[in-house]
Amino acid sequence: MVQKAKILLVDDRPENLLALEAILSALDQTLVRASSGEEALKALLTDDFAVILLDVQMPGMDGFETAAHIKRRERTRDIPIIFLTAINHGPHHTFRGYAAGAVDYISKPFDPWVLRAKVSVFVELYMKNCQLREQAALLRLQLEGGGKAAGGEAKEPAGLLAELSARLAAVEEQAEALSKQLSDESTDAAAVATAAHLERKLTGLRRALDALEPGSAGDQTAVN
């Protein structure tokens, strides 16, 4: 079963959280509520999130301060943040949002379809990154375990490499399709950059896997 991504919704008004849940429920992911910046930071200590929807105007710790704390933590600094605000103080206010680390800045009332589409992009990128980490972890485990299959029986090196290569190829194909979709739709630059980063990771993993193939330069170096 594919694990669902978690989306963090941060707003001090319950009716706004309810509205966000209604809009994003169609994505069929796990929606986590936080009614303050402090509560959001607490949730981020234990859970991994695909994207954060963060209200700017909150009593106590506002959205800008909350984002600053998120970006200072190594565990959470790369999580995309979409700022939601009911006010518009002009370019300076928007710039402050991007300076705080936001990938997008949306004014209320917002178009539900647009918000859902933006969030879905980051959810898909998150899922692809999870697949990449799983494939990398599987590669390490099987190589360290001498290429044992799930049943505990040792697999031939050629068969193991072929299986891992096929799994990686599936992720590469999905990542390439996603990157093309983002480029064709002229999506946010942050989303396109994240997709490009994912493809670079996949390229690195492919090179490492290719180096294990018999007769490769890496294999010959190891023999010599």
From TrEMBL:
Keywords in alphabetical order: Coiled coil, Phosphoprotein
InterPro entries associated with the record: Bact_response_regulator, CheY-like_superfamily, Sig_transdc_resp-reg_receiver
Domain of life: Bacteria
Modified residues (4-aspartylphosphate): D55
SUPFAM superfamilies: CheY-like
Pfam families per UniProt: Response_reg
This protein's record includes keyword Phosphoprotein: yes
Annotated Response regulatory domain residues: 6-123
Coiled-coil region list: 161-188
Full protein name: Two-component system response regulator
Biological source species: Streptomyces viridiviolaceus
